[in-house]
Design brief:
Strands 5-4-3-6-1-7-10-9 form an 8-stranded mixed sheet, with helices on both faces. A two-stranded antiparallel sheet has the order 2-8. Helices cover 27% and strands 29% of the residues. Helix 1 packs parallel to helix 3. It is globular and about 40 Å long. The chain is of the alpha/beta class and 187 residues long. This is Dihydrofolate reductase family protein.
């Protein structure tokens, strides 16, 4: 059975984007960017909600061709293009770059994918992750918490019907006072 991991940068008050979808506060240091790139390398499949997919697919297909691209960004762009991806959306009808579109029941499809043999899967996008969280499908949470309060926006965590008990498995500090924590779901 595959492991499903939900991880993103978030503000200290728990938001992945400030009002207006502003993520200007979450620009990662080189070290944090490398951490996320290494996570991508270790992932067999990434699951995206529509909104995050549109953000990622608007930049990373050509991210390695940007004039100021760092070696880490070039590596990330190539990994991103090559890896298998699934986008869950009922409002778009086409995806590219080694990606498959799912328009049906996200919980059923994620459950099916988890039951397959293979390496870890990442899930991105607050709405999609919230659906998986409420269904008890997420095995690990990775929070890269920035020392900023944004006061509102898109929350990392969604409202839950039941508690989710977790075990802390890692803490790490990064430049600029950012703290990374990893938790596994206690089953």
């Amino acid at each position: 059975m595959r492991k499903l991991i939900y991880g993103m940068n978030l503000s200290l008050d728990g938001y992945i984007a400030a009002p207006g979808d502003n993520i200007g506060w979450s620009v990662p240091s080189d070290e944090l960017f490398q951490f996320w790139s290494d996570q991508l390398q270790a992932t067999d499949l990434t699951l995206y909600g529509r909104k995050l997919w549109q953000t990622m697919s608007s930049y990373w297909p050509t991210g390695d061709q940007q004039p100021n691209a760092t070696p880490a960004e070039i590596e990330f762009a190539r990994r991103w293009r090559d890896m298998s991806k699934v986008v869950f959306s009922s409002t778009i009808d086409k995806v590219d770059w080694n990606t498959r579109l799912v328009t049906g029941d996200a919980v059923a499809e994620i459950t099916r994918l988890k039951a397959e043999d293979g390496g870890p899967m990442d899930i991105g996008g607050a709405t999609l992750a919230g659906v998986a969280m409420r269904a008890g499908l997420i095995d690990e949470y990775v929070l890269a918490t920035a020392p900023v309060l944004v006061g509102g926006g898109t929350p990392f965590f969604t409202g839950l019907d039941n508690w989710v008990n977790l075990n802390l498995v890692e803490t790490r500090t990064f430049p600029g006072g950012l703290i990374l924590t990893r938790y596994e779901t206690r089953r």
